[in-house]
Each structure stands twice: as structure tokens, then as C-alpha cells.
Amino acid sequence: MSNSNQHTAQDEPVAFDDRDARPDAMHETVEQWLADLRDATDEAAASEQFQTWLDAQRRFHDYSMRNTLLIRLQQPDATNVAGYRTWQTEFDRQVQEGESAIWIWAPIVARQCPKCGNAPSYHGESDCEYEASAPETWSKGVVGFRPVAVFDVSQTEGEPLPELETDVYGEADDLVPAALAAAETLGVSAELVATEDWSYGDAKGVCKHRSGKSQPHVAVRADLDSAIAAHVLAHEYAHARLHAGREADDERAAREVEAESVAYIVSRHFGLDASNASFYLAAWQNDEIDELQDRLERIRTTAMTIIGGIETNLERT
Fold first, then answer.
1. 121 with 57: CB under 8 angstroms?
2. Cα–Cα distance measured from residue 133 to residue 130, given in angstroms and rounded to the nearest whole number
3. Which DSSP letter does residue 214 get?
């Protein structure tokens, strides 16, 4: 049975033109996408839908899961986004006349009550009785979010963007030692294991806890192609960071989708071909919407951490 109407609707870019309705519409659109993904009955279509989010997350790995999804739903082909003034002042580019904004969430930073967490203006209207210190002495933090407009580079004109070096870092051979070197900062130990010493059957890589060691240990076969080895290292690093102590059999398939999703983002970020990836999303079908959102956020943050560790070591070579 196909859920074709759902996916056809998803292919049409959305817009949030009504200023008054915009915040609610942004929330509802994200919630609907998550519900559609969870409830999809066509596994191939669901995998394709999910992969489009992973591709967007690869391009915008510094953005939250919800902002990445909002960008993808409004401008599926977006590659680099920035605010109107940022394009002018930092890149000497101008948003072209008639272009529609892409709306994302931006944090509202203000002084927060140490007890209730509200900004001074809301604290005064709340039931909180904290008076131990004056509001002007409170530390600043995120007290909420508001819609802000950004534009993709394709909506601007002007000076060429500086050459970015995030697509490919030389030969794929350079990625493997950088990924191995990143293990320490990721709280993992890692090694390539010679074929004759490999004791894990057909597995390309494993993540294990060794007796007497606090850190998870990742082992990857040394005879793998360098691009595959880098991908497998990212996959096993994801297990190490996400799934330590969560080895229940009933979550095995769900954990594999999370780890492979992280590896997909990392591989694509470094210019590797991961086009054959597939994602068994039926493993998530019993999730509540907030559980699914948490999974996507874990994927995003874990991929960002692994990318950062690898990039730091690439810069040292």
C-alpha cells in the first residue's frame, strides 16, 4: 500500500507568508512532517523522504533539526543560507528583488530568573517569588524562539562566495587517519584490524566495551576501501556515542538506522558517495512524535561532533 498523496504533498515547497499565523504554521508543518515520516507505509518512499532530510542536514549541520527541516521544506535546493544583512555586509551580495524569505527559528537571548528561567518581563507576571538578586545581575540565556528570515545564495547576486573546503578533503585516504585520530576527542578508542586478526565474521566494523576499559572500542577491518572504512568508522563512532548501555534487542534495528544516518551525513559532508544508503524506517514506526524528534536531533548533534573531530585532525595534516 502506498502513501503517495502524503509524499506528493511533501514535494511542494511550503511558504509562511502570513505573519500572524507564521509561528503556529512553522510548528504545525514540522509536526506534520514528523507524523508523516513515522506513519509512512511505503518503505521506499519513506526512506527517500528521510534521506532528503539527511542531505539537508549534511549541508546545514550547524542548524537544529527543526531549522534544517524548515529550510528543506521551503527551499529544497538550498545550499547556503544567511540573513539579509549578513549577505550584504559579510559577502557583498544582495538579495534579489521579489525573492521569498526562508523562515527559521532564532533564539531569543535575555537575562533569566535563576529560579523560573523567565526573562524579567515575564518573570514579573509569573508566580515566581525569586527576589534574591536584581534582574540586571541575572545571567543571560535562551528564553524562547522567534521566526527570522534567511535567504539561500541562489536568491542573491554579487561577489562569488569564498571557496569552501568542506566538500572534499583531497583523497579519501586522508579521511581514515583523521577519523582514527578523532577517536580520542570523541571519547572512543579505535583501530584498523588486519584481515588475519579479524574475528567478527562478515562485519565491516564493531563497537565493543572491553573488560577493564571505560571507553567504547571501535574496530574496523583494515582491508576495506578507504571511503568505506571512513564511513564505517563514522557508523561505529555513532554507536559509541549514542548507544552505550542501550543494547536491548528490541531496539537493535532502530539503533542501526540512527548510526547509519550519522555515517551518511558525515560521509556526504566529506564528499564521499553514499548514494546506495537505505534506511529501514519501519524500526521507528512505534515512536511518538517527540521520540522521533529526539532521534533526529541525536543524529544531527552526533554527526556534527564527529565532523568537527575529523576536520580538526585534517587541518593538522
1. no
2. 8
3. S
Nearest partner of 261 among 98, 40, 90, 37, judged by Cα: 37
Interhelix angle 43-59/22-39, rounded to 10 degrees, is 130
Express each pLDDT in 58-97 by its tens digit.
888 778 899 999 999 999 999 889 999 989 988 889 999 9
103 in Cβ contact with 143 (< 8 Å): no
Q: What is the pTM for the complete model shown?
A: 0.74
CA distance to 25, 59, 67, 91, 284, per residue, from 261 (Å): 28, 14, 18, 32, 13
Q: To 10 degrees, what angle do helices 4-11 and 22-39 make? A: 140
Q: How do residues 196-222 score in pLDDT, each as one tens digit?
A: 999 888 889 998 876 666 788 999 999
Q: Which residue has the higher pLDDT, 3 or 229?
A: 229
Spatial CB neighbours of 124, under 8 Å, sequence gap ≥ 6: none
Joined together, the cell numbers standing for residue 31 give 509536526
Residues 37, 284: Cα–Cα separation, whole Å? 9
- From 216, 314, 230, 224, select the one nearest 265 (Cα to Cα): 230
Q: From the CA atom positions of the chain, what is the Rg in Å?
A: 22
Torsions phi, psi for 61 (to 5 deg): -70, -10
**The three grid cell numbers given for residue 30, joined into one nine-digit string:** 514540522
